[in-house]
Every structure is written in structure tokens, then in C-alpha cells.
Amino acid sequence: MTMNMGLAGLAGAVLALSLPAPATAAVHAGPSSGTSSVQWKSCPDYSDEVIRSLRVTQEQVPAFRTLMKRLECGTVGVPLDHRDPGGRKIDIAVTRLAATDKAHRLGALAVLPGGPGQSGYLDPVRSTLNKEAAALNERYDIIGFDPRGVGYSAKVDCPLPPGGPQGPGALTKKAARKIYDSQVAANQKCGRSDPAFLGQLTTGNVAKDLDLVRAALGERELNLLGLSWGSSLGMVYRSLFPEHIGRAFLDSVAPPWTNLMKHTKGSAQAAERDFGRMAAWLSRRDDTYGLGATARQVREQVAQLVRDYDKSPKTYTDLPRPIDGSAVADLAKRNSTEWVRAGKALAELRTATGTTAPPTVKEMLSGGQMMGTPLPGAPEMLNMTMNWAVKCNEDSSRPDFGTAWRAYQQLVKRHPATGRSGGFGGALCQGWPLPVQRPTLKRGSGSLVLAGHLYEFMSVYDWTLQTRRAIGGTVYTIADDVHVSATRVPECAADVVKYFETGRIDTGCKGNGTPN
What is the span of the domain harbouring residue 81? Predict the structure, then answer.
């Protein structure tokens, strides 16, 4: 959910599995099927190579294929503009994995994907492949879908702005100004390219699409499992259609407001706090990492590494870009599941020599599969134009350059270990030519669980508490710093399954514990 960088760096701000296919700058909307039923068709056939690219292990490929044989795939026609139901129609791609225990079926459970811009088309298969959450499919049909603007649903694609003129090292005001101006120009070009479509990419419209999917499936109500941005979608759906919602579990809860500068500030504060936990952990292992015997010493050592690498970036022949302070800060910003490797990489950077990167540095900073070209036939797992448009259609900040530059300087000064990791977010939506459309949120009395992660920075724990004050619900506290981990940790996943089966849930779980 976080938005603390220029658009070219946004892939780190969402839970992406792979980058989207090359931009097409065209609407991919087939003939509309209307809104009364689903137009079912054959599901895609993926090669083993494509399946593995979806973070499915070789051992899981047969189970993935078995689930794909059970999966139903189709489209539902919806209005492009819900204020004009008789106007232009677009298709929303929908999938369903029917409950295995039909005699005790409890209903339909829609998985709401993250992003915005992530695909949810294969979420029924992916969630059931996850052994911790697989039991949900026993008594629930699991529903997946690609939101408008994503994957197999109708979409447009704007060329992303260039990565920015900033070279390695500390960001200068002059370079930041160029990044800002480039972003403004890209916003104007994209927003004006197809305003009729792009202006309808909002959380509210996705929620309205989802309710038409519900009706097309013949369901009286939907139960919701919302992940990251999917929590925003769940809040909005619950606000718009309280009569059509059953149980809702929202993991890594987004804030109940839409202001990207405020979002960036809160996320940066939480990241630096979580680094304090990492620093304390590293200090207790000074014999291994050599970064300091106290948390304060580790903090000072890492902050000094940020300054040193900004002053003298290092280029390695086997890395795609030089290592500067932002790369060091990125290592300091990792969650507890990566502390062992991040600590090794930071230790390596203290004494690195030679023309090739130290092994752990290379492993963690080479970019990996996220930076590669999608395989032929692979589904689009993340559409950055949709991410861009939804955030800019709803963002109420849109600061001028002076405001954005001052905010960046304050962020780096206040968060010396982690503040450089996001680069200059500037004003992501300044110059976006379409009007602000804030989502509708209302307090409700229906069953709602808000899962907040105590130490997370992508979805700050305090946002969970703010959301409860705004719309109600029960807070479920996960004592980790890992984004949307609720269904991936056995203890927590068991609580999620119990909630959807009984409507009852405990107060929280440990989540992903800190490493030994």
C-alpha cells in the first residue's frame, strides 16, 4: 500500500508477483455479457514454466494443475460508468473454486487482491494451494477476479514515466526537480490519454463491479478476505452494500483516508521504528555481524553506511545499478523474515572490495525475478496504470514541488537508517488532470475483523485503530512486521478459518516470529 517513491519505483509499493506485460495503450474489453449471469468459458492453460513464475514450487505444480481443473472461469459485463448503467460496458474476469463440502457449504468468499493493480484471477487456486488456508475451500466457494484495469479484465496501459534523471548518490534539489517535472508531465499525458476509462478507475467502482459479480453468481451475499489494498476495497464494499455482505476479514489494513503524503510519512516512521527492533536483534549477535554491541551502535553504523555509500557509490559488474545510500537503507528496511540475510549484507558492505558484489549483497539487491520480462503466456499479475490511476483519482494531497522537497528532506533527516530507501516520491499525483474522487466509508454493524500487524510499515498498525474508529469492527493483532501474513502462518490461519466458519475469533496471534 505504501506510496513513497516515483512511479517508476512503484513495484516495491505493492505485493507484486511479477511485472505486467508491455503496455498496449488499448482497451481490452470483449463483448459485454450484461449483468444477469456469468459468461463461463475455458480457463487459461499455463506451462509449467509459467506456473513456477507465479511463485509456485516445482513440487506444487501438480497440485496447482489439479486445482486449475476444478476452477471455473468467466466474465461479467458491467457499466464502465455506474452512473450510466445503459452506457458503455466492460468485462470483468471472474473465477470460482466451488466448495468441496457441498452438504455443509456456507456461501461464497471473495478474495480481494492488493495493489491497487494486482490480479486476483488465480487467487482461488493460490489461496487453496496454501495449506494453512486451504480449509476455507471446504465450506466456501472461493471467488477471484481481476479488478477493472487489470489482467484479463478491461484495461488501458499508459507508458510509465522514465526512472528519473537521478544518478547514484544523495539526491540533489536539482535532480529532484527534474523527477518532479517528469512525473507531472507523465501524469498529464496518461490522464488525458483515455479520461473516460481512467477516470472510472476507483475503489468505489471496483466495489460496484464486485456487487454485480455477486449478483451474476446468484449469491445473496459475499464474504470477504481483503489483503492490503483489498482491505480498502472491503471497507468500501461494506459501506456501499451492507445488505450484501457476510463476514469480512481484512488483513494489513489500509488507513480510512486517502492522502499519499500522509501515508508516506506514517509508513516511514513505522519503518524506522521496526529498524530499531532489527538493530537490537543485530546487537545481540555482534560476534556474527560486527555492526555494534548495542542497538544504538548498530543504528549509528548503518546510518554511517548510508552516508558513506551516498558519498561514494560503488559499481559492481554483476549488479544492474550502483550501490548507494538508498540500497543500504533498503537492507535496513527489511522485515524480520529477512534479518539474517540483511544483516549479512550490511556486514559485507562495511568491508566490500573488488569488482563483483559480495554474495549476500548480490542475492538481495540484484533485482531478481521482479525485474525480469514476463514469460510468454503468463497472466498479468500487476498493472501499474491501474495502480497509478486509482491512487491519483483518490489522492487529496497533490503537493507543489517546494512542499514535496521539504517533506523528503525531513523524512531523510528524521529516519537516517531507512529514509533513503524510497527515493524521492515527490508528488506522485501532481498534474493528474482528473478530479479527486474520495471513497465512501460508513460505519456498519456487520461482522468485520481488522487484522493489524504490530510492527509493520507497509500498513501501519495505527491505521487499523483509526479504521476501527471510522467504520467499526474487531481488531485482530498480529505481533509481527510481515505484510498480509495472516493466512500464511498456521496459528493465525487457523483463526481466520475458524472466523469464517463460526463468526468468532480470538484477539490475535504471534505471526512470523523474529528469527533465532
Answer: 7-156+202-256+443-509
How far apart, in whole angstroms, are the C-alpha atoms of residue 381 and residue 154?
14
Count of CB atoms within 10 A of residue 102's CB? 10
Q: What is the CATH number of the domain that holds 456?
A: 3.40.50.1820
The DSSP bridge pattern shows strands 508-509 and 448-453 to be unpaired
Q: Does residue 124 belong to any structural domain of this protein? A: yes
Cβ of 302: how many Cβ atoms within 10 Å?
A: 25
For residues 67 and 81, give the distance between their C-alpha atoms in angstroms, rounded to a whole number: 35
Does pTM top 0.70 for this prediction? yes
Render pLDDT for 202-236 as a digit per residue (tens, 0 to 9). Answer: 999 999 999 999 999 999 999 999 999 999 999 99
- How many independent structural domains does the chain possess? 1
- Residue 331 CA to residue 483 CA, distance in Å, equals 17
Stretch among 9-18, 199-208, 488-497 having the lowest mean pLDDT: 9-18
Domain membership of residue 361 (yes or no) is: no
- Residue 77, helix vs strand vs coil: strand
The DSSP annotation for 95-130 comes to EEE--S-GGG--EEEEEE-STTTB--TTHHHHHHHS
Q: Picking from 29-38, 104-113, 235-244, 442-451, which range would have the lowest pLDDT averaged per residue?
A: 29-38
Domain assignment of residue 289, yes or no: no
Q: Report the distance separating Cα 219 and Cα 217, nearest Å.
A: 6
More confident call, 492 vs 34 = 492
